[in-house]
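ok trying again, last paste got cut off:
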Amino acid sequence: MSKSEIAMTDYFDALEKVKNKITQAQYQVMTSANVERNILYWNIGNVIIEYSTWGNRFVETLSKDLKLSYPGVDGYSARNLNYMKQFAQRIPSEKILHQVGAKISWKAIKTLIDKTDSLEEYLWYTERCLENGWSTAVLVHQLESGLYERQALADKTTNFNAQLSNPYNEQVEEIIKDPYIFDFIPNSKKMKEVELEEALVQQITKLLLEFGTGFAFMGRQYPIKVGDRDFYIDLLFYNVKLHCYFVVELKTVEFEPEFAGKLSFYLSAIDGELKSPADNPTIGLLLCKGKDKMVAEYALRDVNKPMGVSEYKLSSQINKELQDNIPTIEDIENRLN
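nice, full thing came through this time. structure:
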């Protein structure tokens, strides 16, 4: 059958399928090449460790000889060889290397070597890179925001263990951060809730990056009707990985116990009006300017809806020390005179 006899829509469908197959194959080849190179670098690093008593001159000489032996091949600078040594020191076994350690880009590996302090932290970020497909730029952003400390190590204030069954409670707990960092919004002591809400929505891409992979934005001041009354939810998300609605209430003040009651009502309304039988229970998050942890824990103790309380941080103002060092108009005039 000639091409002219095939319906154009069918042809384009076939073309897209072939292109997708090619793209997938190219990605697999690239990933496989990355893994093979990283394994090679780890093995070279172990050789360097074996002869590390010879000092830095050994690495410099090795670099020169490798460049002579493999002209035109990048990657054998003394600096890169030292990264290979650190890579081998960081990943203690071939098992860990093959499971996780070698599956991200070499640039990402070097970034993690520079910016993490332990194997646990290194592997945590590596797993998130693989899970979320982070670029190196996104990885750097997450490292600089202290994501590991805010998400993996944070002492979070939630009632998920009491209100959700295993393993769903653990999965929800993992995605919560404390504090949330909104460094794309200038700090303002007088910012109102509606202004904070508007600022977050205007930077929705950065907001979704902070919330994490899987969050889809459903709307701001999302309307929901209960009886004859209309109510409006500050921010509504749907998490496609957890298959649940995610209600966020913003407070530009310290946490107060009554906030939990209002959020609980919203969760009941979403469960009753929007949630389908296939969805998991709706999750609530109160984002406050600050909180007394014990007050928040008591407030959540008898609430029968799953929710958490986290603080948020905005972009820091110029710190006082820097501000004190900025010359005044009088200082400048005195110097000129």
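cool. The radius of gyration is 26 Å. The chain is about 55% helix and 20% strand.
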